[in-house]
Specification:
The structure holds 2 protein chains of 2 kinds.
Chain A (H helix, E strand, L loop, with lengths): L1 H22 L11 E2 L1 H5 L6 E4 L3 H6 L6 E2 L5 H11 L6 E4 L6 H12 L5 E4 L2 H6 L2
Parallel strand pairs in A: 1-5, 2-3, 2-4, 4-5
Chain B lengths: L1 H24 L1 H10 L5 H24 L3 H24 L18 H23 L10
Classes of the chains: A alpha/beta, B mainly alpha.
């Protein structure tokens, strides 16, 4: 029995090492305060207003369907369109290129000042959407 | 009796193989579930998030295939005791978390249901263990 248990423990360790090697570092799916996971964001009703806080080039290359481009650089030009698109009762989810990135945090902070209701940062950023 | 034992063995093996597969498919979600318990440092939680699913899959497969059953039953029994202790600890500390028994499953706070399920699985493992240790008289050469 001990030999069997030892063999199973060793085999599981080898499989776990192989999985860790293939998958690389894993990140907890737990969201920090003010963040929302992709799975939770997709369950929001009504669907959230998505804000893309990356560069215009990155936005053009691909973005969440319906997302509005808004980052600290183009704020004065793009914020009126965002305010126009927002509706009462609708959450806002901001993402940028890097998980927990400064751009999405800053845009979310500025949007909260407008008291638009809940404003979240997407946990994992754009990568959470493009490589779920 | 033999049929019920075989059915239970397949059921328990299937449950653990399925639980392990769901966890292995989304290690990030399982890591979050482990960290919600606030029992392990991050490095150990990451190791557990990779290791435990494969241990469950292998042990479940052993029960399904009737190979290395004693070892698999012993390991699964130990795992269930750890899971039950972790659940009871979270309940006692008033944490509002999902059990994570099947990865990123379930609503938070259903401790009674999760504990009842784990205790039932532990009882089933114990029954299979006792059955596996009984040596039929015929195999000892007595008629």
């Amino acid at each position: 029995m001990l030999r069997e248990a030892g063999g199973l423990l060793l085999a599981a360790a080898l499989l776990a090492l192989a999985a860790a090697w293939v998958l690389g570092p894993i990140e907890s799916a737990k969201a920090e305060a003010g963040e929302i996971t992709l799975a939770d964001a997709l369950h929001l009703q009504p669907p959230p207003l998505w804000i893309d806080a990356r560069s215009p080039a990155e936005y053009e290359a691909g973005h969440v369907p319906g997302a509005r481009l808004l980052n600290p650089e183009n704020w004065p030009r793009n914020v009126p369109g965002v305010l126009e698109a927002w509706e009462p009762g609708r959450c806002t989810v901001v993402y940028c290129a890097t998980p927990g990135g400064q751009a999405s945090q800053e845009v979310a902070e500025r949007l909260r000042a407008f008291q638009l209701g809940p404003v979240f940062v997407l946990h994992g950023g754009w990568k959470a959407w493009s490589h779920p | 009796m033999l049929w019920s034992r075989a059915g239970l063995r397949l059921l328990v093996g299937g449950v653990f193989a399925a639980a392990g597969t769901l966890k292995a498919a989304d290690p990030g979600a399982f890591l979050a579930a482990i960290e919600n318990y606030h029992l392990l440092p991050h490095a150990l939680a990451v190791a557990a998030a990779f290791y435990l699913p494969y241990l469950e899959i292998l042990c479940g497969a052993c029960l399904l295939l009737r190979r290395w059953q004693a070892g698999a039953l012993a390991l699964l029994g130990g795992l269930m005791l750890v899971f039950i202790a972790a659940l009871a600890s979270a309940w006692g500390r008033g944490l509002d978390i999902a059990c994570g028994c099947f990865g990123a499953d379930g609503e938070p706070g259903h401790y009674g249901l999760a504990l009842a399920r784990d205790l039932a699985l532990l009882a089933a493992l114990g029954w299979l263990w006792r059955g596996g240790r009984r040596v039929p008289k015929r195999s000892l050469g007595t008629r």
